[in-house]
Amino acid sequence: MHSHPLRQSKKQRKTMADNNPIRFGIMGCAEIARKVSRAIHLAPDSILYAIASRSIQKAKQFAVKNGLSETVKVYGSYDELLDDPCVDAVYMPLPTSLHVQWAVMAAEKKKHLMLEKPTALDVGQLDRILEACSVNGVQFMDASMWYHHPRTAKIKELLSDSKTFGQIRVIHSSSSFLGTPEFLEKRVKPDLNALGALGDAGWYCIGAIMWAKNYQLPTTVTALPAIARNTTGVILSCNASLHWDKEQTTATFYCSFLSNESMDLAISGSNGSLNLEDFIIPFTETSASFEFTSGAKFLDLHIGWNVKSKRVQVTSELPQEAMMVQDFVELVKGIKHSGCKPDGKWPEISRVTQLVMDAVNNSIDLGFKPVTM
């Protein structure tokens, strides 16, 4: 892996204060595993102990490409990694269709589980994974990194201020990128990425909406007719709306592999609004911002506004993926060393997201009719 200033700061911050770091194994050498292997290195009290692929050659290539230490164990099968008693936790970036098999097996081997999104093909599969984690007393967390950025906590603080922000009325999120021909040909397949853009980019959109609504399920979910699929039927682009009857809140999202990069989140309340264009991956690692307005009104003759939006800047000592690892490690350490129970917050977040994603799929299958939650 390339040298990075954040790495040096970690070495300065920590001189192995914890002699019992959480030992990670990475199952699968997908591109995203490069980012997470770096995050494991940067996060306190964690080490990358082992990597595994379906072939020893691919695992070795990953180790070389990312400059991994020679002390990292390299396995040519997933079973070997799960059978290693020294592995405390696994990060699993396998294709979604393989999640239920290997995630359940990891839990049964008493490995704490950080699972790439989408967590499963449907909530039935996810429930099998979560049940295995619960029965075996291991921590579950999906690898949605943006939840762990301090900016996210700051936004939640503002949303929770009824005087400043008011009642949430409208939410819109988008996640899109223009997929390369290679990506669309090799990745967007029924056996690898069966949920397509909905499962990949849409997971973030739904997650952001549900996060803003404190994970209260909507009354209805309706997919919109503007949908694109590839020749194998996998979704390349779609839109949907969510509605909460009692609170009169409406949310919409757009996810796509066919349009320019977007990671927008806009939330409007009865007295405030906020916007950010990089909610999934901040523009820079060390700080992130959002625009916030409260009590805005038009001036006389509607020739302007009485206030300008305020840019709120939030700094971060670590990249958000390293903060995700850090949060996960703290939970694992509590279970391993202090007799704590797994935190049920993270499985519930994933399950609610999966439920809404399933509802969007159901609405599509029903000819874009509303699905009652």
TrEMBL record:
Domain annotation GFO/IDH/MocA-like oxidoreductase: ranges: 154-274
Regions crossing the membrane: none
Pfam families reported in the protein's UniProt record: GFO_IDH_MocA (PF01408), GFO_IDH_MocA_C3 (PF22725)
Signal peptide, first to last residue: none
Domain of life: Eukaryota
Domain called Gfo/Idh/MocA-like oxidoreductase N-terminal: residue spans: 22-141
InterPro entries referenced in this protein's UniProt entry, alphabetically: Gfo/Idh/MocA-like_OxRdtase_N, GFO_IDH_MocA-like_dom, NAD(P)-bd_dom_sf
Family the entry assigns: Belongs to the Gfo/Idh/MocA family.
Protein name per its UniProtKB record: Gfo/Idh/MocA-like oxidoreductase N-terminal domain-containing protein
